[in-house]
Amino acid sequence: MSDQEPRLEMTDQDRRDFLKAMLGLGLAGGAALGGWGALEFLVNKGTADTWHKSTCRFCGTGCGIKVGMRAGKITDIRGDEDAHNKGVICVKGTMLRALPDIPGRLLRPRIRKGDAFVDASWDEAMGLVARNFEEIIRRDGPDAVAYYGSGQLYTEENYTANKLFKAGIRTNNVDNNARLCMTSAAFGYTTVFGKDEPSGSYEDIDHADCFFLIGSNTYECHPPIFERIRRRRDAHPGTKIICVDPRRTRTAELSDLHIPVIPGTDMLLLNAMAQVICEEGLYDRPFIEEHVRFADGEKTVALEEFRAFLDRDYRPEKVQERLGVSAEMIRRAAFLFARSGATMTLWTMGINQGTQGTAQNQMLSGLHLITGQICRPGATPLSLTGQCNACGGARDTGALAHALPGGRSVANPEHRREVEKLWGVPEGTISPNPGLTAVDLFRAMEGGKVKAALIMCTNPGQSLPNVGRYRKAMDKGFLAVAEAFEGSETARLADVLLPAALWVEKEGVYGQTERRYQLIEKLLEPAGEARSDLRILVDLADRLGHGGLIKARTPEAVWDEWRTMSASTKYNFAGITYPRLRKLHGLQWPCPTEDHPGTVRRYVGGDDPMVTPGKKVEFYGHHDHKAVVFLLPYVPSPELATPEYPLVLTTGRVLEMWHTGTITRQIKELAASAGPARFQLNPADAHHLGIREGDPIEVRSRFGAVKGIAALSDSPRRGVLFAAFYDPDLPINLVVADHYDPTSREPAFKVTAVAVSKVTA
Ligand SMILES: Nc1nc2c(c(=O)[nH]1)N[C@H]1C(S)=C(S)[C@@H](COP(=O)(O)OP(=O)(O)OC[C@H]3O[C@@H](n4cnc5c(=O)[nH]c(N)nc54)[C@H](O)[C@@H]3O)O[C@H]1N2
Ligand SMILES: Nc1nc2c(c(=O)[nH]1)N[C@H]1C(S)=C(S)[C@@H](COP(=O)(O)OP(=O)(O)OC[C@H]3O[C@@H](n4cnc5c(=O)[nH]c(N)nc54)[C@H](O)[C@@H]3O)O[C@H]1N2
Ligand code: SF4
Ligand SMILES: [Mo]
């Protein structure tokens, strides 16, 4: 691929001024310029001799990009017009062009000596990791070690780690940062439809009349998706966007109806909407009769019982006060949702990261099922993925403590036997006990039960809730950390630091929101002595004597093993090969054969090859081919406001910064545009507390306290305080509660009761 494209030249200073100016206007992001393309054009520079098809390494939107190169270096990044994002990318994707040169890369292995690190050879570093693992396993058994990976690793990497730990070392202590992010969605889909991963696609955006955005700041976190939604509304007036968020985000400002719920109370809203839908006869009886089963826990119940359950406790008038929005607003949302030609729900962390994260996911699908707003163009519940490969790498490969590849579970003896056969290991190899999930894993380290962990491509020293507690826990155990950058909060706690190649310094497959697998080809040599995470895992396997199990040693060989294995599951993507992915802008599974074009709408006859021929819709994940609507009572969060902790802290992201900021804080344009993190506080609350713009304040919870600067803003509703978690100088996770959803075990990062006070000198 090679073509020279005309460009507008800009100096670095111009770009910074531009980004700053946008921030000053409150327009960070550039959508206000009429499209993300405009921003991309303005901030791009450089010329390229060759252009290479790739995928952005950041978020689960999974944007197709073109990487421009000259003289063996990346000089430019553009959105790919031929990919699903139609050329639109955000400022993080654009700035990927800086990635290979940004300062702070970890360039060679390091070993801790007292309080300092010394450089080491790969052989010394890996030898030390292997010796520690071996010794601990021999002395304390396999469950004394663990792997904690990431939805940003390639599919081949998480697949290999999962196999090495579950079938080689024989522990199910394999978890992922996706536990902090997507497991509520995964449990939601799995319990409702029998299989994880959504039925719909981004393409549905072009057909929907009503968008229900709940717990998602789409504008900042999935910008091209929000742009596509806006284009749909522009082209199709009458299309409504509803945004449910305790903050008036840019997403909320650009919506038609903003529902500012009190954090942690969404279950009340969803049940009340269902109550209105039933009472007003807005449900789809024929669809329900053919495709839906109602259940109260395990027990099947009738539609009438579901209605009685809702009538009893969830009339809008009865929930409005606890929810913090009027009954009238709830009714309006219910009518818009049920009566539109096609409703599409998009959600992310405001829903997943709650103590009712799974129930909220179940009920969102439930609203679509009772109204028949599903399996038609534009009508679908689509959970937006957070990380670039949380779907492909963490969920689909089953690299989670409770899971096995292809939608199987550790607790199911049949599933274990199937996987043992496929992996060619003796029956009984895989332990029947689910492993430790993220928070519990670090608690076990605290208690000394887990003594060593391999941490790859994630920064739990900053991203875990109640992180003060878990930093101490990490300090106790033996920690091998594979990292691309030095100086992360986790790297500081490591015993061995393994320099990792990242993104186009290696090759592999990402799987994003819409079941689309895309290949990232290698374009650069790794920085310094860095190695791919796959190579690190293969090396560890050899040193631990599991080389015979881990026979696939190149990304393509691992992928071929995994896709062949998928043929025996309903995920079947045996037809997605590297040669196809090199040519195409990804393929959506199911995709059973090499001539299959992929599946846009799952469970829909004529599109999804897993549906019995002749059926229009078939929820084949469950034995009775029905999807389940659960009766789900609202359970209040343990972190609602109290007299002692009268405000609720919620946390999240800003457009320019990626998570813990290890990468984006090093990119000067992005750092300048985002600035240091602040506490966002409603002026009314501030007034009440005697706090003014710029004042130093202390935020204290039952878990910890942090000092920072107050920024007054109308965005958070009264009673709500917001902080982003990208800035180690505002280590907000010291304050964030570590309660988790009992089913998904995903932490409730969005709800912590806090007290706020002005810091006086
Ligand atoms: N710019 C940027 N984009 C990203 C990322 C990033 O780091 N930076 N990370 C990626 C990842 S991994 C993820 S998981 C996604 C996250 O994407 P989002 O979930 O969209 O982002 P967040 O800011 O975590 O939270 C979204 C919104 O939830 C709201 N919220 C808080 N509590 C509640 C509640 O109780 N109910 C409701 N309804 N809403 C609530 C917050 O006010 C916030 O605006 O973003 C992905 N994209
Ligand atoms: N308060 C609060 N906390 C949260 C959340 C929230 O909403 N609020 N959200 C949670 C969610 S949804 C998520 S997804 C997590 C994210 O939390 P983390 O996964 O901890 O955050 P990242 O900054 O993405 O960490 C990835 C690390 O991997 C390194 N890295 C990059 N590429 C590679 C590579 O190829 N190989 C290796 N080995 N290393 C690499 C990066 O330098 C970085 O340090 O945060 C969670 N924490
Ligand atoms: S939206 Fe996500 S995938 Fe697309 S360019 Fe931005 S960060 Fe990358
Ligand atoms: Mo995430």
**DSSP helix count?**
26
Total beta strands: 29
Briefly note the structural class of the backbone. alpha/beta
Low-confidence stretches: 1-18, 20-43
Radius of gyration: 25 Å
Helix content range: 25-40%
Ligand identities: ligand MGD, iron/sulfur cluster, molybdenum atom
Largest sheet: 7 strands, mixed
Return the average pLDDT rounded to an integer: 94
| Strand residue content | 15-25%
What is the 3D form?
globular
Strand arrangement, largest sheet? 5-4-19-18-17-6-7
Distance between the termini: 61 Å
Model description:
The chain is of the alpha/beta class. It is 32% helix and 18% strand. It has a seven-stranded mixed β-sheet, with helices on both faces. A six-stranded mixed β-barrel has the order 24-28-25-27-26-29. The chain has a five-stranded parallel β-sheet with strand order 10-9-8-13-14. A hairpin with a 2-residue loop joins β11 and β12 (299-301). Mean pLDDT is 94; it is low at 1-18 and 20-43. One ligand MGD is lined by residues 59, 181, 214-217, 220-221, 244-247, 249, 261, 263-264, 266, 348-350, 354, 386-387, 650, 652-653, 655, 657-659, 750.
